[in-house]
Amino acid sequence: MAERKTGRGADRGTSRTPGRDDRSWAGAPEAGRGADGLREPREPHHESLGSRLNWLRAGVLGANDGIVSTAGLVVGVAGATASGTAILVAGVAGMFSGALSMAAGEYVSVSTQRDTERAALARERRELEEDPEAELEELAGMYRDRGLDADLARRVAEQLTARDALRAHAEVELRLDSDELTDPWQAALASFLSFVVGALVPLLLITLSPGGWRVPVTIAAVAGAVAVTGAVSARLGGAGPRRAALRSVVGGLLAMAVTFGIGTAVGGATGM
């Protein structure tokens, strides 16, 4: 017999999927009626939207990282040498090393999260097999906590358990979609591509601009680009865009100023 649980699954040590919002079924939109005439809660679609927005926001931040890190690198090299070839080689190497580093880190992070999600689902499946009545009462208790009266909470729990017990517990208790777990390969590819797209902005500008205009044009373009990514990221997160854009611009300008100063000092000292 599995130990009977109370509460909302907080002691399970599971992690929530990025972008998964807490949901309240009390007062939720309703759809068709079940066999006993009880209205069944409509499946919440805003969770998928929240997950997509979170991925989009991560992509924007990855592009911002690509812009700032590559801009700092190529501006630093431009401070040390006027050679367009040296700047291009450094920029391309920095772009791919940064993109691969981000992709690898994202893959490891999301793989760990996916393993945690699978372990939580396996534990829930085992508990449902060992003590289904206790699990049913737990599910009804969670609906009572969300504002349903005892009879209605019990009927909702019974209907959802009859349909798909594991899915019902996963969504309400674990905040997981048992049919849509996180994909580490997708996360790694998104991070890689977003970083490369961002890195291309300073890389192309500094290599295609005339010699004397390389650094000024790159700095101006990077400031505008990070202002856009900062504002978009803030919008997706529900925050005000102006302050976020200003922070991004200040951070990008500071990074380029520091690397340009270091490149100029190193280039002057070595006679590059």
Automatic annotation (TrEMBL):
It holds the Pfam family VIT1. The lineage of its organism: Bacteria, Bacillati, Actinomycetota, Actinomycetes, Streptosporangiales. PANTHER family: FE(2+)/MN(2+) TRANSPORTER PCL1. It comes from the Bacteria. InterPro entries: Ccc1_fam. It is a multi-pass membrane protein. This is VIT family protein. Its main location: membrane.
